[in-house]
Amino acid sequence: MGLFTRYAMDALMKTSHPEVIRRQCWNLHPHRTPCTACKDICPYGDAIFTRPNLVKDWDPCTDCGLCVSACRSGCIIPSPEQVQRDTSLADTDNDTLWLGCEKSTRKNTAVRVCIASFSWETLAYLALNKKLVLDLTPCGECENDVCAAQLRKELTRLVEFLGPQLFESRVTLAYEQDEAPYHVQELSRREMFSHMTEGSRAGTKKLLQMLPGLRSEEDSAADFRLMLHQRTKQLKAASETPLRYGWYLPNFTQKCFGCGKCEKACRSGALKLEDMPDGQTRVVVTPWKCSECGVCVAACSNSGIDGMKLRQLTTLGPVSIYKCSKTLCADCGKPIAPNSSEGICSVCRIKRRTKQRQEEAAARARERIAEREARKAAEEAAKAAAAELAAENAANASGAAAAETAAAPVSAAAAATAVPVAETASAPKKD
C-alpha cells in the first residue's frame, strides 16, 4: 500500500477499538452455556466488558484484536485501522511475511501483542498472497494459557482450510531463533516507485470500499472473509486445477423439512431456503458469510441439522447443500414434517385441540345448565304440590273444626233433655 494512501486511510478512518454487533452475539440465541470468550481473552476484560456482548468503556482498549479472533459468532468486528494494518501486509515487497509477538527478540515484518490476535481468516488471506513465517519462539515461555489455546485453535482451523499440503508449502512455524531468518528484499529505485504506485492504486480501492458510507453493516462484519473469498476467486480463475478449501457448513439430515427456523436464526444472512420450479426446496449457504457459529444448529428443534461438517470447496460463493420436498399444513400452509399426524402443524394441532376442548366444555356447560333448570323446575313443582297439599289439609282441618263446633250445642241440649227423663223414669210409683 502506498505511503499517501496509508496516511489518507489513517486520517479518514482512525478508529481505536473494535465494534460489537449485539444482535449477532451467541448469547442472544438458544444455547446451554453462555459464551465469555471475548471477556476471558481480553487483557482488560473486566474494565471493558460488563457482559460479553455489552461494552462498558473502550478507553482501556489497545486494539490488539484478541477479542475479534476469539469471537465465535463474528459479532465483534475489527476496527478499520486493524483491517488496514492486517491487509496491508499482503502488499509488501517481500515474498515472505514474518509475524511475531512483542516478546520476540527477532526482527519480524509485523509485531502484535500476541500471534493469536491474527484470526485464521487473516492468516489464510495472507498465506494465499505471501508465504508466512510464524515466530513461535516466545510461546514456550508464555504463561497465558487462554492465548495459547486460542492460537492452537486458529492454527488448527488454518490447516483445515488450506489442507496439510498447502499449509506446509505456504506457512512455516518457527520454534527456534535460527529457523526461517528474516530477509529484506532490496529493490532498485525504479522497482520501488513501481511498487509504490501499484500499492497506492490498491490501497485507494480498499479505502473506497472501507469508507463507512459505502459498505453495509453485514459486509463490515466479514472484512477478512470477504477478502479471502475474493482472493480464492482470483486463484481459481488463474489456475487450471482449482484448489480446495475446508469450510464448516451445517450438516442437514433427512429430518429437515424446510421449516425455515435456521434461516431466521442466521443473523449473518449466510443461509437461505429457495423454492425451485420442480416443487422442491434447496438450502443455499454462502460460506464466506458463514461464521461457523452453529446458531442454526441450536435453532433447529427437529434434529434436521446434525452439527457443522467440514466440506472441501473450490469457491467460497453460494453453494447448495441440501434439497427436500415440502409438506404444507392443511390449516395454515406452513411446512410440516411428512409424517405429521392429521396433516397439520403442531400449532394448528394445539388450536384444534383447544377448540375441541372449548366446544366440549361449552356442551358440558349447556348440559349442566339444563340439569340445573330441570332440577329447579322439579323443586318448584314439588314446592307447589306441597303448598296445595298444605292448603287442602288446612281446608279439611278447618271444616272438621267447624263441624265439631256445630255439633257441640246439639249434644249439650240433648244432654239437658235426657236428664229429666231419666229422673222421671227413676221415681217410684204412688199407690
How is the secondary structure organized here?
Elements: H1 3-12, E1 19-20, H2 37-41, H3 45-48, E2 49-51, E3 54-55, H4 66-70, E4 76-77, H5 80-87, E5 96-101, E6 110-112, H6 120-129, E7 131-135, H7 145-162, H8 164-170, E8 171-174, H9 189-210, H10 217-220, H11 223-238, E9 245-252, H12 261-265, E10 271-275, E11 280-285, H13 295-299, E12 305-313, E13 319-325, E14 327-328, E15 335-336, H14 346-426
Parallel strand pairs: 5-6, 5-7, 7-8
Antiparallel strand pairs: 1-4, 2-3, 9-12, 10-11, 11-13, 14-15
Written description of the protein model:
It is elongated and about 155 Å long. The chain is an alpha/beta fold. Among the domains are: 17-78, Alpha-Beta Plaits, CATH 3.30.70; 243-347, Alpha-Beta Plaits (2-Layer Sandwich). Helix 6 crosses helix 7. The longest helix has 81 residues, at 346-426. Strands 6-5-7-8 form a 4-stranded parallel beta sheet. The chain is 46% helix and 15% strand. Mean pLDDT is 79; it is low at 203-221 and 421-426. It starts with a helix and ends in a 5-residue tail after the last helix. 28% of the residues are buried. The protein has 14 helices and 15 strands.
